[in-house]
Design goal:
198 residues, 7 helices, alpha+beta, eight-stranded antiparallel β-sheet, 2 domains, Phosphorylase Kinase, domain 1
Length: 198
């Protein structure tokens, strides 16, 4: 068996092991697809197995994105909030956004980026307080973790990095900073970390 075949076999086996403890209650397209991939792999159809795994992976990403969206705050009293929108792109990670509208019509957008290349470019800013200060950011604490906030009087941005894999962001050009901070602070960080396996 060549190297790619061994890698595919390991992927099918690992996926099967992960699902084996979930029981029949979790039988769905994902489980069926992974089982089918195992059958195709066993029959020597590597291309078919890979295709089934690709479909299963896409379904898992969709379910995970929906779960990520559920960690975003509920709309504050008197506010409204759109349903979270998710996007997954090969090599670009997962992105989930949700827009909140205040009673006066002004809005805040929350964005979650997971496994995004953007994390690499933001690493220096988060790791260097002097650089962050020069860029106009100040530290704030959310759920015992460091976040950075930038308030230039006309717009507000808050960012938080988690585990080198997640970037949480809040942006508004019209909502007062204290309201943006309160909304950001209501993010269910512990649930988010658990979903990401942290």
């Amino acid at each position: 068996m060549n190297k790619s075949g061994k890698i595919l076999g390991a992927a099918v086996l690992a996926a099967g092991v992960m699902l084996s403890g979930l029981g029949p209650a979790r039988a769905d397209d994902v489980g069926d697809g992974i089982a089918k991939a195992g059958e195709l792999y066993g029959a020597g159809d590597l291309g078919g197995a890979l295709q089934e795994l690709a479909f299963a992976t896409a379904e898992i990403q969709a379910k995970l994105s929906a779960a990520y969206g559920e960690t975003m705050p509920d709309a504050p009293e008197g506010w409204s909030a759109d349903e979270p929108e998710s996007q997954s792109m090969m090599g670009m990670g997962q992105n989930v956004t949700r827009d909140y509208t205040a009673p006066d019509g002004n809005s805040v957008r929350l964005t979650l980026s997971v496994d995004s290349p953007l994390m690499q470019s933001m690493g220096m800013l988060f790791g260097n307080p002097m650089m962050a200060a020069q860029a106009g950011y100040k530290r704030m604490r959310v759920s015992g973790m460091d976040a950075m906030v930038k308030d230039d009087g006309g717009s507000v941005q808050i960012m938080m990095a988690i585990g080198g894999r997640m970037l949480l962001n809040a942006e508004s050009s019209s909502v007062p900073a204290d309201q943006v901070k309160a909304l950001f602070s209501a993010w269910k960080i512990d649930e988010l970390k658990k979903l990401a396996g942290m």
